[in-house]
Amino acid sequence: MKKSILALVAAAVLAAVPLSQAQAKTYRVIFAGYFGPDHPNTAMMEHFKNELESVSDGQFKVTLKPNNEAGGEEKIMELCKRGTIQIAQVGGLLKYDEPMIAAWEQPFVINSWDHARKVFLSGGMKPFEGQYTEKSGARIAGVIVNGFRQISCNYPINNMEDLGRMKIRTPLNDVFVELFKALGTNPTPMPATELYTALETKVVDGQDNPYSMVKSMGWYEVNKYMLESRHIFSPTFVIVNDKWYNRLDDQAKQWFDTAMNNAVNYNWDESEKDEAATVEFLKSHGVEITQPSPEFHDQMVKACAPVWQWFDKEVPGSKEIRDYCASVDPAKQ
């Protein structure tokens, strides 16, 4: 009799627990990135973690590894493709699995923040992902911001002649080598880890990166002039291991997708605000920022014609992507 009563009590307790809690799975997630602790892309990771853990009532357990804690960009990309980690932030390196991805970093095809949002957040870029998932084993879950690339130098740049005498560090990426050849400079590829010393010792005159990177890497300490060239808008892709994602149940996928979408939108808002704040920071630390004259800007754009031809020859889908970007440019509508 006593056992029967205990059994009834136990059954009543279980009945009072929602089925979703009684049968809840736990999904453990590692999300890796390579941006510093103050960068909007790291803040995006925090936003995603907080929302996903909250909305799932703890079914998702998200561990963040920003600032190269799980390795550099190339390593975390490979770890995500293998499924060792589930989510990673990766830039143009995705082109090694799907060459079409490289065409997003064509010069002077994205002109403003509003234009960039139209390009990357409207859903229209989806066809231009090519066969990335099939080739890599990962899927693109969202596009966040690296930003508009600007040129820093150890002397002011006011015209094409000033630009042409630069010895400029470029990433280890043939896209940027072709671009800066066309602009008349002497491109010098090297890893970002070597750049501070190269600028300090004047091995190179300058480099190109978004304002946020110039601040976070401290390059403004050894390069006191910047040209707001906005020559390339660089996206960062959030990739997710495809097999892991497909093992999520429907509810978990909905939680994941919603948290990711909200974190992406948050990142764009924060990145645009961060650019404006970083400009003021750099100015307050003695950096002179030059706006190119309309004539100078047009000369840079015209000089890039051979780069677009190179893209059309080397990178599939390049013209289609340029046409798509032009079709959603608010300035042309």
Describe this structure in a few short sentences:
The protein has 333 residues and is α/β, with parallel strands linked by helices. The protein has helices at 2-16, 19-22, 40-55, 73-82, 113-121, 132-136, 160-164, 174-182, 195-200, 211-216, 242-246, 250-284, 294-303, 305-314, 318-327, and strands spanning 27-32, 60-65, 87-90, 138-148, 150-153, 167-170, 186-189, 206-209, 225-227, 233-241, 288-290.
Description:
The chain has a six-stranded mixed β-sheet with strand order 7-6-8-5-9-11, with helices on both faces. The protein is built from 15 helices and eleven strands. Mean pLDDT is 92; it is low at 6-15. It has helices at 2-16, 19-22, 40-55, 73-82, 113-121, 132-136, 160-164, 174-182, 195-200, 211-216, 242-246, 250-284, 294-303, 305-314, 318-327, and strands at 27-32, 60-65, 87-90, 138-148, 150-153, 167-170, 186-189, 206-209, 225-227, 233-241, 288-290. It has a single domain (14-332), classed as 3-Layer(aba) Sandwich (D-Maltodextrin-Binding Protein, domain 2). Strand 1, helix 3 (40-55) and strand 2 (60-65) form a beta-alpha-beta unit.
